[in-house]
From TrEMBL:
<dbReference type="GO" id="GO:0003700">
    <property type="term" value="F:DNA-binding transcription factor activity"/>
</dbReference>
<dbReference type="InterPro" id="IPR032783">
    <property type="entry name" value="AraC_lig"/>
</dbReference>
<keyword id="KW-0804">Transcription</keyword>
<dbReference type="Pfam" id="PF12833">
    <property type="entry name" value="HTH_18"/>
</dbReference>
<dbReference type="InterPro" id="IPR037923">
    <property type="entry name" value="HTH-like"/>
</dbReference>
<dbReference type="InterPro" id="IPR018060">
    <property type="entry name" value="HTH_AraC"/>
</dbReference>
<dbReference type="InterPro" id="IPR050204">
    <property type="entry name" value="AraC_XylS_family_regulators"/>
</dbReference>
<keyword id="KW-0805">Transcription regulation</keyword>
<keyword id="KW-0238">DNA-binding</keyword>
<dbReference type="GO" id="GO:0043565">
    <property type="term" value="F:sequence-specific DNA binding"/>
</dbReference>
<dbReference type="InterPro" id="IPR009057">
    <property type="entry name" value="Homeodomain-like_sf"/>
</dbReference>
<feature type="domain" description="HTH araC/xylS-type">
    <location>
        <begin position="200"/>
        <end position="297"/>
    </location>
</feature>
<protein>
    <submittedName>
        <fullName>AraC family transcriptional regulator</fullName>
    </submittedName>
</protein>
<dbReference type="Pfam" id="PF12852">
    <property type="entry name" value="Cupin_6"/>
</dbReference>
Amino acid sequence: MDPLSDVLSLLEPKSYFVGGFEAGGEWSVYFGEYDGIKCYAVTSGGCWLIHEGVPKPLPLEQGDCVLLPHGLPFRVASDPALPSEDWRRVFPGSGTGSLARLNDGGEVTVLGGHFQLAGPQAHILLGMLPPVVHLQSESDREALRWAIDRMRQELAEARPGNFLIVQQLVYMILIQALRLHLDEGRGVGWLFALSDKQVGTAITAIHHEPARRWTVETLALAVGMSRSGFAARFRTLVGDGPIEYLTRWRMLLAGRSLVRGESVGAIARSLGYESESAFSTAFKRVTGDTPRDHVRAAKS
C-alpha cells in the first residue's frame, strides 16, 4: 500500500454517522465538540460555516467539501447572524443513513459523515491538518462529484443495503478530500511531504520495508540525493529526521500488533530489532509506555 493508505488502515476509521439534511428558509444548526473527523459536502444551494477555529464565517457553495478534523464546535447556517439551535433538537430522531429535513427543505442540501479513528495515533493524521480544509475549486468539485451525487441518490431512494453503500461513499469522499488537500502542498508533515518526489519516495520505501536497516545514507542513495541534502530536505518537509520517522512508524505498527495479541518477541523481529529489550526501549522512548502498559491501556 501507499503511505496514506497505510496510515488510514492503521487508524481504522469507523463511520460513526453518515447522512445529511435538506433545509429551507432561515436556519442555523449548532454542532458541539466531537472526536474524530467530520466530512461534509454541499450538493445543492449554499450556506455558511461558522467554525471556532476560523476567524470569519466561510461561505459554502454547491460542490464545496469541507473536512473538520479537530473536534471544535461549529455552526452551519443560512445566515451567520442567526441564533442557532442544537442539532439534536433540530433533527429529532434522525438516524444514520437518513436525510433529514429542516423547514421543509428545498433550498440547500448538505451530506456527510463523522469518522472516529481508533487509538491514540490519530494525531499523526489529524494534528497536521488545519481546523477546516475547504475544497472549493472547480477541479476539486469535479474530482468529488461522482461520489457525492451517488451518495445523494442513495440517501434519497433508501433502497436495501443503502447504508453500507453510503458508508463506503463517504469514506471515498474523505480519502479523496485528503488527497486533494495533499496536492495543494501547503503545510509541514509526512502527508504534505508525499507530494515531494524524493522525500515522498523515501517515505514510501520506509513503509514498504519497515524492518530494513535503513540509514540516512541508504535512503538518500535510494532517492538519488546526497546524504546532507536529503537529511535537510526531509526534516524541512516532514518536521522530523528520516530515522526518527522510521522509528515512529515502526512503533505505530508495533502498537497495532500488540493490541492484536502478538508477542513482543515476534513484533521485535518483524520490525528489525535484534532483541526484545532493544524494541521495548525504543517503544517506551517513542510512545511513553512499555509494551505491556500499551496493551493494558488499549483493553481498558
